[in-house]
Structure formats: C-alpha cells, structure tokens
C-alpha cells in the first residue's frame, strides 16, 4: 500500500506541477551523459559499455546510498520525488494538445511546428493526416517510455528501479541510433533499453487493449508488431492503434527522404481527435494500473 500511495502522490505532483521549469534532473543527466561521451567515445562496443556504466550506474548507486542512510520518512519522500521526475504524463499532454488544437484550427504550419517538438521526423513534409499520425504515435509510444515503464519498475524495485529505467531510456534517446557515430558506441544504451522495456511495453500494450477495442488491438499486436523495427515500440503502437481503431505507421520522412514503415492499426485515418483519444487511452490505462496495484495490495494484506 505504501507503493500505491507513492504512485498516487507522484502522479498528483506530475498532474499539478508538470515537469520542473528551471531545472529538471534529466536535463542534468543529459549534460552528464554528453560529458561522458566527449571523453570516452570510440567506435567500438567496449567504449560504449564503459560510458553506459559511468553515466547510468554511478547516479543509481549514489541514490541507493542516499536511501540507505536516510530515515524512513525521508526515504518515502525521495521515492515520491524520483518517481515524479521519472514520469512525463503531464508533459505528454502539454506537447500533444497543441498539435490537436492546430489541426482543428486548420493551421498546418503551426501543427507541423508543434509535432516537431514530439518526433524526430522531417515535419515540413507532412500533411495534416501525417501530422495527426505522428502525434498519435508519439503519445502511444511515450505512454510506455514516460509513464508505464517507470511505474512498472517502481512497483518491482521501488525508486531505484524507476530511476534506472528512466536513465536508460533517456540514454537510448541520446546514443541509441544506427549511425556511424553510435552504431557501436550506442549498442549498450540501445540493448539495455530493449531489455528493461520488454515486460512493461507488453503490459502497456495489454493495457491499451483492455481500455479500448480489445479484439482489434490484440489482432494488430499479433500480426503487425513483429514487422516493426523496435521490439518494444511495435507492440505498444500496434495495440494502441488497434484499440483506437485508427491507421498509423506507413511512410514517414527522415533525413530528407521518405522511409517505408509497416502499417499499424486499422480503421479511420488519424486526425486531431486521434491524438486526444490517445491521451485518454493512456489516462484510462493509468487508472487501471492503480486499481490493479490496490487490489494486489488488499489481497496481500487480507
């Protein structure tokens, strides 16, 4: 029940405060990771493994040490704060809703600019349908990366688990690219993110299915996810698209050229409402997770 209380408080802080405006610990971690990269970068995996250990394991170890010497009340407060910093549900809405609003207003340039703050693709080449697809895909995928992944590892290993997941996920976003610079150096960052995300991604996909059109979601997950290039994003987005009964995936522009991607989901073409419905799907899934934790806690103390 302590875990549930900490989750509720962290989610409440995220809902009320959003991300810290002046200093976010993940921004500080990004600066640390960049400094480590400048000093240790080399074109082989061993350098990347060493850099990953220094950037991730040292902060986690320091946090565990702080918890070990702190009184219980402070430990609980630290756990709530770490989970709050690891969550990004409020930020997800802050980025996604302006995209939906611009699409509803018929302002495509504003919609492109807004979705460009969510995705890495070339937004200048997107029409309204592609903008809506990009925004919806980002909400679904980040539902795992910024919400459910952190909640899962918090449930399993407490605040150290949530911290480890968030740092690994952030480092993957920095180093986990298949480019000349990161193909080998970023291997450890990409693989550890795949490993830590494997179970929570599938629980996220299952949650989307349970909170939407379950039959379509499960079918899309089974038939479409294996063809997606990411082992964790595939199930999450395929299930989410099916749950919403919307068509996502397909060609997208990256680095000046259109890349073919598998189709995800089925049903209507995405629009502004698809982004809003995706946010609501994430919210319903969060409530479902809280209910499950409550029921497990009650059963364990019965």
UniProtKB/TrEMBL annotation:
<dbReference type="GO" id="GO:0043757">
    <property type="term" value="F:adenosylcobinamide-phosphate synthase activity"/>
</dbReference>
<keyword id="KW-1133">Transmembrane helix</keyword>
<comment type="similarity">
    <text>Belongs to the CobD/CbiB family.</text>
</comment>
<comment type="function">
    <text>Converts cobyric acid to cobinamide by the addition of aminopropanol on the F carboxylic group.</text>
</comment>
<keyword id="KW-0169">Cobalamin biosynthesis</keyword>
<keyword id="KW-0472">Membrane</keyword>
<comment type="pathway">
    <text>Cofactor biosynthesis; adenosylcobalamin biosynthesis.</text>
</comment>
<feature type="transmembrane region" description="Helical">
    <location>
        <begin position="146"/>
        <end position="168"/>
    </location>
</feature>
<feature type="transmembrane region" description="Helical">
    <location>
        <begin position="46"/>
        <end position="66"/>
    </location>
</feature>
<dbReference type="InterPro" id="IPR004485">
    <property type="entry name" value="Cobalamin_biosynth_CobD/CbiB"/>
</dbReference>
<keyword id="KW-1003">Cell membrane</keyword>
<dbReference type="Pfam" id="PF03186">
    <property type="entry name" value="CobD_Cbib"/>
</dbReference>
<protein>
    <recommendedName>
        <fullName>Cobalamin biosynthesis protein CobD</fullName>
    </recommendedName>
</protein>
<keyword id="KW-0436">Ligase</keyword>
<keyword id="KW-0812">Transmembrane</keyword>
<feature type="transmembrane region" description="Helical">
    <location>
        <begin position="281"/>
        <end position="300"/>
    </location>
</feature>
């Amino acid at each position: 029940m302590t875990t549930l209380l900490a989750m509720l408080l962290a989610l409440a802080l995220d809902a009320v405060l959003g991300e810290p405006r002046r200093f976010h610990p993940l921004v500080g971690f990004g600066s640390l990771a960049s400094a480590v990269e400048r000093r240790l970068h080399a074109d082989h995996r061993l350098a990347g493994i060493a850099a990953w250990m220094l950037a991730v394991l040292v902060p986690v170890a320091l946090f565990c040490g702080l918890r070990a010497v702190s009184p219980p009340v402070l430990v609980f407060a630290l756990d709530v704060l770490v989970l709050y910093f690891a969550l990004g549900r409020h930020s997800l809405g802050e980025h996604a809703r302006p995209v939906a609003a611009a699409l509803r207003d018929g302002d495509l340039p504003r919609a492109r600019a807004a979705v460009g703050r969510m995705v890495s693709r070339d937004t200048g080449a997107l029409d309204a349908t592609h903008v809506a697809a990009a925004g919806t895909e980002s909400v679904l995928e980040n539902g795992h990366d910024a919400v459910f992944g952190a909640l899962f590892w918090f449930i399993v290993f407490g605040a150290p688990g949530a911290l480890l997941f968030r740092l690994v996920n952030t480092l993957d976003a920095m180093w986990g690219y298949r480019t000349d610079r990161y193909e080998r150096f970023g291997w450890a960052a990409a693989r550890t993110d795949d490993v830590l995300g494997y179970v929570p991604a599938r629980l996220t996909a299952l949650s989307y299915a349970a909170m939407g059109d379950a039959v379509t979601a499960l079918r899309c997950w089974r038939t479409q996810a294996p063809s997606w290039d990411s082992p964790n994003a595939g199930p999450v987005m395929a299930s989410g698209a099916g749950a919403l009964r919307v068509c996502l995936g397909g060609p997208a522009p990256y680095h000046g050229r259109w890349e073919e991607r598998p189709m995800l989901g089925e049903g209507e073409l995405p629009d502004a409402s698809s982004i809003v419905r995706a946010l609501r799907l994430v919210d319903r899934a969060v409530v479902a997770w809280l209910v499950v934790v409550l029921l497990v806690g009650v059963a364990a103390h019965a």
